[in-house]
Write a structure and sequence with these properties.
- This protein is about 35% helix and about 25% strand.
- The chain has helices at about 5-25, 40-60, 70-80, 95-100, 170-175, 190-195, 210-225, 255-270, and strands at about 30-35, 40, 65, 85-90, 105-110, 115-125, 130-135, 135-140, 145, 160, 180-185, 205-210, 225-230, 245-250.
- Helix 1 (about 5-25) packs antiparallel against helix 2, helix 5 packs across helix 8 and helix 6 packs parallel to helix 7 (about 210-225).
- The N and C termini lie far apart (about 45 Å).
Length: about 270
Amino acid sequence: MIELHDLELVRRLVKLAADEELLARFTRVSADIKSDGSLITEADLAMQNRLQRDLADHWPAYALLGEEMTVDEQQQLLAASGRPLWCLDPLDGTSNYAAGIPFFGVSLALIADGVTRAAVVYDPSRNECFSALRGRGAWLNGAPLIAPRAPATLSESIAMVDLKRLPAALVSSLAHSTPYRSQRSFGSVALDWCWVASGRCQVYLHGGQRLWDYAAGQLILSESGAVGGLLNDFAGDWLDGLSLKPRIALAATHADLLVQWRARVTAGLDG
């Protein structure tokens, strides 16, 4: 299984591939529309192919599940037991990338026995590499990443909220009775998790994330000391395990703030 020295190699592979496959094509590619309505570029495919090859050179026994695979391929890989599995979003934030907006990243997680064990999220535009090992901590460019305990209240917080996938009543409630100081939505889910872990935003809400969206970022967030997780519905229990079904993401930099945030979100569902 991955250790600290292995994690450094993974970071180097991801950074080199992103610099050569993503940055080299940035502002120079057009996008096509996939069957689910999302965008894809040649950079998505080049990055996935590059990392699939590079990772296999070093860990030939590990499989890889990529966003740009078919659903059948993804289901078969996730269902296979006893084999470690890389989970890759080769270009998280394709809409930003295709529009020339420099906010996108690469998300890579290592899953074993149904649990995410290691994670790397790289932002090539800012040369920021977030990483984590389960039970060992999180890092930003090799330095320890520790979520701050401030601010204490929701009203002082900057919220990262993706409104597109939220119930209309909740969107209306957040718009007309804003509970936080300010709100952002940047368009790269993996980086969202990391920005909460680093305290740049203090509360987070997203209405529908796929496995490759959250697998790496959630581990980085939890290993930083921040709190939160995934839900099937807003009133439900926190979820364990992995699934290809969309999940709600809710998080905060510390536990007291998460209690305030979840209570406000739940109240907002009634308009």
